[in-house]
Amino acid sequence: MKKFRIVSLILLVCLGSFSCDVLDVSPTSVITTTSFWKTQNDAEGALNGMYVNLRNISGAIYTVGEQRSEVFEGGVYGSGRNDLNLNELSGDQPHHPDWSAFYAVVNSANLIIKYTPAITFKTEAAKNSFLAQAYAMRAYTYFVMTKTWGDLIIRTEPTESSNAEITIKERAPQTEVFTLIKSDIEKALSLFSDNSFIAGRSKWSKAAANTLKADVFLWTGKKLNGGQADFTTALNAIAEVEKADVSLLPNFSDLFEYANKGNKETIMTIRYQDLDGASNNIFWLHWIIDSAVPSNIDAATKALIQPVGGGQGLLVLTELVRKQFTEDDTRKKGSFYEIFTYDAAGKPTFYTSLSMKGRGLLTGGTRLFLSDIVLYRYADVVLMKAEAKNALGQDPTEEINKVRARAYKTAYDKHVFVKGTKEFNDEAILKERLFELVYEGKRWWDLVRFDKVFDIVPNMKSKKGQNDLLLFPIANTVLSLEPKVKQNPGYK
To answer: What is the distance between the alpha carbons of residues 167 and 164, in angstroms, rounded to a whole number?
Structure first.
């Protein structure tokens, strides 16, 4: 009798909801194919478990996507994750995520892809939706991983045996990883029946898969010599996204309010809700710890920051980034809040900053950092469109100004974009992405894709030419378990 190990225990205890958070639970339960994967409810439990596993890597996605950029530095309460901010990386640093939790997501998807086809569903459309979400999830997870670590072990079958011939594998070249990613995206798109969203927009949809497709092809167009063909594919995928029920919200700051989750600008999010077992997410690093709240601040600031909840104050925006925002840009107040202290004469001194995109939920006299992690939203897509058009020699003016008009409102006339050379346009797009998407786990990837890491990140400027450092080191915990995996070049 064939048996398989369920990585997260979700299939035993969380069949119908997101009510469990079991990342720290050792996987010990073994169930057989004769007792599971029989009904649509079984498959639904597995699908929900896959999304719990995605939530378990939300912090890691954010870490690898932004924290090595020029955006953050240590806060008033400590240096936090300065090994990332300083780009002092090695295989044994505690703040660098390893890939084991990512492969748990892949394994969840692989189980669904393998066993769902044999199950009888109420409708074929429901079955196809489950499979589409699994393919999209696998593609997304491999995309994040290959941008982070390069070559990867490719697993398209669930791990159901401890046989070394199955579990111990070598990494495949990144080109093969992208072949799988693109194939999975096409399978997902072929299985989604329409452009609708599941309530909350926290599960994969056709629009989200097309957004992922655009993201992937922009990356391979620039980093894997895909060129004009890939940029055209990205632009066509964006055209499909625009057919869905998506739009820019009138007010930037409304995007991130806890009560406004699943709004029309969001395309794919990782859902956090009170009382569903979720703990504080990555945004608690960007608030302030209670013991660091100074007494000499104004009353409005005290009212804003209290209660601090589990805030840590370990990552704050750098002056380099803060000073680039103009006062008439509504994204400044919608993205971060600057705290100033005042001396006896009322002279202000900058103290620290807080993220306004992830301030969470106030309930029962405390703050819970349960804002959704936004993987994709429509403003991101609009700027992807500008990037793809510019790469194809087309005019990105309409897209850049669409984003700026929302950002500057009545001051928009002072900030109208006028196209220039391709290089000039790219510089404007990259900066616009900083203003629009800071705190959303995008900046490092943007700098890599635009080939600007060594020009913009202060602690990388002296390392120009050391392109191996654009990848993360593979954690020693992984190397100890994967004898056929070698450390990435440039790291010990």
So the answer is: 5
CB 209 within 8 A of CB 188: yes
Burial category of 483 from C-beta neighbours within 10 Å (exposed 0-12, middle 13-18, buried 19 and up): exposed
At 439-483, the pLDDT tens digits run: 999 999 999 999 999 999 999 999 999 999 999 999 999 999 999
* pLDDT score, position 32: 53
Q: Which residues pair with 74 in a beta bridge?
A: 315
Taking phi over 0 as left and psi of -120 to 50 as alpha, with beta for the rest, 70 belongs to alpha
Contact 394, 335 (CB under 8 A): no
Q: Concatenated DSSP letters for 61-96?
A: HHHHHHTTSSSEEEBTTB-TTHHHHTT---TT-TTS
Beta bridge partners of 426: none
SS3 375: strand
Q: How far apart are CA 336 and CA 263, in angstroms?
A: 21
Q: What average pLDDT score do residues 413-429 get?
A: 98
Token pair for residue 296? Answer: 């000499």
* Cβ contacts of 384 within 8 Å, gap of 6 or more: 211, 214, 215, 218, 234, 238
Q: Is 23 exposed, middle or buried (0-12, 13-18, 19+ CB in 10 A)?
A: middle
Q: Which amino acid is at 287?
A: W
Per-position DSSP letters for 208-240, written without gaps between them: HHHHHHHHHHHHHHHHSS-HHHHHHHHHHHHHH
Instruction: Give 349-371 pLDDT, tens digit per residue.
Output: 999 999 999 999 999 899 999 99
Tell me how far apart the alpha carbons of residues 305 and 287 are, in angstroms, rounded to a whole number.
8
